[in-house]
Amino acid sequence: MDSEYVLALAQIITSGLLIGAVYALTACGLNLIFGVMSIMNMAHGELLMLGAFTTYGLFSFGLLNPIASLLVSIPLLFLFGVVLQRFLFERMVSESPFPTLLMSFGLSILIVSTGLLAWSANYRSIPYFSGSLLIGELALPRARLVTAAIAVALTAGAFLFLRSTRIGKAVRATAQNTMAARACGIDVRRVRMIAFGLGAAMAGAAGTLISMNYAFNPDVGQVFVLKCFAIVILGGLGSFPGAFIGALILGVVEGLTGFIFTSQVSEIASYLLIIFVLLLRPTGILGLRR
C-alpha cells in the first residue's frame, strides 16, 4: 500500500477521533437524560447552540476567551436545564414517550426561532486557535487537539461524578429503578433536575468547543442532535461508556466515508449507522434490553 495513502488514512482516523471526542460530550449528556427520565430530548442540540452563542458573545465583546467561557456556558446551561426540567419535562415524566417527544420537538423549534430573531441566520466562527501541530508526519489542527482534550476531561469528570459521589450514585440508582430509589429515600424529583441540568451543561460545553471548530448559526443544533441520536443508538440507550465509544466510531466513520467517497456521503454516515445498528444489534454496543 502506498505510504502516502497510509499517512492520509492515519490523518483521517486521528482527526475523526478528535472530533468524535467532542461528539461524545454531547451524546453522553443526551444519554444521561434518557437513562434517568427515559426522555429523548429533541431540543438537546439547541442547548449546544446556546452554548456556542454564549461563547461567541463573550469572545466578541472581549470579555473572555473561548476556553475561559466554559466557566460561564457550563453553569448557565445547567441552570437552564434545571428550569426546563422543573417546569416542562417533570410534568410529563409519567406520560408516554410520544407526547414528551412532541413537546421537546416544539421546544426545539421555539429556541431555534428565537435564536434566528436574536442573531439572524448568518454563520459565525471563533478563530481562536490557528495552525497545526506536527506529530511525526501527522498534521493535527490545534483547535481540534485542544477541544478534544477538554471534551475528554469533561466527559471523564462527569463519569467520575456519577460513579464516585453520593449524588451521582443517586442518579444511577434512579436510572436503574425509580421505584426502588424512591423507597430508599432518594429525592427522585431533585435527582431528575440534577441529571437534566448536567446533561444540558455537557451540551453547552460541547457548543463552546464546537464553536472553535465549525462555523455555526442558530440551526446548528439540528445537525448535531441527529449525530447524537446515532451515537446513542450505536453505543446503547442509557449507557454512558457506550455513548463515548459510539461517538468515536461515528467520528472515524464520517472521516473515512468523506475520504473514500465525498463530503456529501460523510453527512449521511450517521443515518446509515442508525439503520445498520438497528438491523444487527438494536440494543447497541453496550446497551441492555429494557
Residue-averaged pLDDT, rounded? 89
- Tell me the distance between the termini: 46 Å
Number of helices: 12
Computed structural class:
mainly alpha
Give the total of domains: 1
Q: Helix-strand pattern, N to C?
A: HHHHEEHHHHHHHH
- The tally of beta strands, per DSSP, is 2
Q: What percent of the residues sit in helical stretches (DSSP H or I)?
A: over 70%
* Molecular shape: globular
- The fraction of residues assigned to DSSP E strands is under 5%
Rounded to the nearest angstrom, the radius of gyration is 19 Å
Largest sheet: 2 strands, antiparallel
Uncertain runs: none
Features:
single chain; 290 residues; mainly alpha; two-stranded antiparallel sheet; 12 helices; 2 strands; globular
Description:
The protein is mainly α and 290 residues long. The chain has one domain (3-121, 140-280). It is built from 12 helices and 2 strands, in the order ααααββαααααααα. It has a two-stranded antiparallel sheet with strand order 1-2. Helix 3 runs antiparallel to helix 8, helix 5 (142-164) crosses helix 6 and helix 6 (166-176) packs across helix 8 (188-210). The chain starts with a helix and ends in a 10-residue tail after the last helix.
